[in-house]
Structure formats: C-alpha cells, structure tokens
Amino acid sequence: MDKKELEQYEVETILAQAGNRNNGDSHGSISTPIYLASNYRHKDLEDIRNFDEHKQYSYSRLETPTRKVLSETLATLEHGTQAFALSSGMAAIQLPFSLFKSGDHIVTLDDLYGGTFRYFDQLDEQYGIRFSKWNGKKIEELHDLLQPETRAVWIETPSNPTMKEVDIAAVADMVHAVDPKILVMVDNTFYTPIYQLPLTQGANIVVHSATKYLSGHNDLLGGVVVARGEKLSEKLAFNYKTTGATLASFDSWLLLRSLKTLPLRMREHTANAQKVVAYLKQEAKVEKVMYPGKGGMISFYVRDEKIIDKMFKSLKVISFAESLGGVESLLTIPYIQTHRDMEESERLRLGITPTLLRLSVGLENAIDLVSDLKQALA
Ligand SMILES: *Cc1c(COP(=O)(O)O)cnc(C)c1O
C-alpha cells in the first residue's frame, strides 16, 4: 500500500501491512523484497527527461525500492510529509543542520544525548553556528533566548539521561508566534511515534536514532528524519541525496520488518519498566528513580558509588552495555559512557553523577529482571 492508502488505518495496521501490496514487486510477495542493485537501467532518453515525474530508480544513493517503502511507512507513522532513512542517528541529526550556515543561532535543551552535544560543540567551534541552552522549564526563558538570527529550537523529550519532559506544543506555539520560520526540531528516539507525535503538536522536524526502539533488536545502526511541509522536505531531500548518508536496502528491509512489531514492543517495554520501577523505588540501595511513566527507559541513583562495579559484574540477565531500546535489557553509566565528552562541571550540574545509572528495560519477563537487579544489588 502507498502512503495515502496506509494513512486511513490505525497504527498497528499501518505497520503490520507496511510493504505488503507494494508497487515495486510484481510477484505479490507479502514481505518487501530487498533490492541490492546499486543502479537501474533506463529505457531511452525520454525516460531520463521525465525522470522527476516518473520517479523511476537510477542510482541507489538517490532511492531504492526497499528504502522507498520504508520511508513512506515512516512518514505515515510520524504524520509527516516526507521521511528520510539514514545510516545512523547522528547522520539523521546532521541532515537538518545542513540547512544552517555560519552566524545562525540555535537554542537547544541543556540535557541531550552525549553524541548530539559533541556534534553541536563541533558546529560551534569549527563552523561558527552559535548555540544557547535552555533548561526546558519556563517557556518565557526560552522566549528570552530567541534572537533575530535564531533558525531552530532543538529538543529531546524525555531527555537523556535525566528524563525531563518538555511540552512540545507550548514550545512550537511560542516559537512560531515569534517567527514562523524558526524550525522546531524534536529527537523522538525515547518515546517513538507510539507515545509522541511531535509533528501533530507543531514541530517541523522529527529525528530518530533508529538504532534504538524503531529497530528494537540491537542489530542495526540507522537514523530517521521526518519533515512537515513540501518546501522543507524538498530542501532536505536535496541535501540527503547530495551528502549521501542514506540507508542501504538490506538495513532498510531489516528496519521495516522491525517496525511491524513496534506498537507491541512499546506496550511491553512500558509494562516491564513499570514493574522494575516499582521494585527500584523500594530498594534500600537505590536513592532516587526517574521514570516519565511510559516507555522503557529508567534512570536511577544508587546510594553508594562503590557497589556499582560489583553490581555490573553480578548481572546475569541484564547486560552492561551502551545503547537502548532493544529486546535485551541494557544498563549503562552515562557519567563515563554516553556523556563522557561533556565537561565534568556540566555533567554534575545536570545530575549526571558517578552514581547515576540508566536502564533500558527489554522484553524479558519482569520477574527475571527484578530478581537479576535484586541479586546484583545484594
Ligand atoms: C543513540 C542516540 C542518538 C544517536 O544515534 P546513533 O544511531 O547512535 O548514531 C541520538 N539521539 C538519541 C536520543 C540517542 O539515544
């Protein structure tokens, strides 16, 4: 089914049916085929002259039949105009930033994925794009940070790793009242479109690390950008094909297959996380638990830094490993892993201390996850 047809259905149906009855396959395959061709034959010169109207394939950086099905599914899922599948979450973040130039000003949330910080620092130091940080609390304070050169506001909600939630609609309403041209961009990796649809709340661009929940099996690196509006989509499409960090057909197929179970997985991640939170809240060795109420991500402080090494070594089900959003539960220590490149003073100010742990609750049985944590903390 194409994007228009899919849009009439509920999210579970959209995803389960993604790629079925697609035009690219003449054999009636239920699962979308993986097209590994890097290039495509043309019929004649007329074929090339009408390329834009016909939307045929020519070269796989520009489009592949497999990636096309994935992109249309992603655009439908996020209620956007056009979606772009990229080779990593960082490549996805880079795509909208390719719209800006030296002297432009961006406001970002102060608590973000560590790699995003590293990239923004580089844009500042090497390319003269200026950044201001907002703590995500008062909209009036965000208002005061806007300047005539402000081109975008970048937020991540809930934030990583301290789980701050930002009201996307309130941000978009205020920012667009000041200047409708300022782009409101949201990293939707943690909640996914199952729990949050930023484009329907006034955001212009949504970004994902598809490495996390969208793929969900700890077996793929990918990124997604979804834009609202034809003009913005066209600009992004131009930069996408020009710079070329596009997702290969094989990975596009893997991501499309994983998306089919996204609603089920998210429900179960939430159910499991709620049970783990209930345990952590009454565990004497745990000082504080941060959980926004839905999704699979939990951050918590242990009382004593000295128990952490032994705890990591004792875990039998949960793995001490970076990343998140997969079927396997993972525990990280952001202070020395994901947020290591951030200034120490900044880490501590944000609450990213040596006793903060971040748990990605997987799809194992919650009983086993709770007993694993219990025995590791004992
Ligand atoms: C992992 C992550 C990224 C970066 O994505 P990669 O796929 O690792 O390049 C960006 N934002 C968030 C919130 C992430 O968790």
UniProtKB/TrEMBL annotation:
Pfam families: Cys_Met_Meta_PP. GO terms for biological process: transsulfuration. It comes from the Bacteria. GO terms for cellular component: cytoplasm. Coiled coil: none annotated. This is Cystathionine gamma-synthase. GO terms for molecular function: carbon-sulfur lyase activity; pyridoxal phosphate binding. It comes from Liquorilactobacillus uvarum DSM 19971. Its cofactor is pyridoxal 5'-phosphate. Belongs to the trans-sulfuration enzymes family. Keywords: Pyridoxal phosphate. The modification N6-(pyridoxal phosphate)lysine is found at K212. Gene3D superfamilies: Aspartate Aminotransferase, domain 1, Type I PLP-dependent aspartate aminotransferase-like (Major domain).
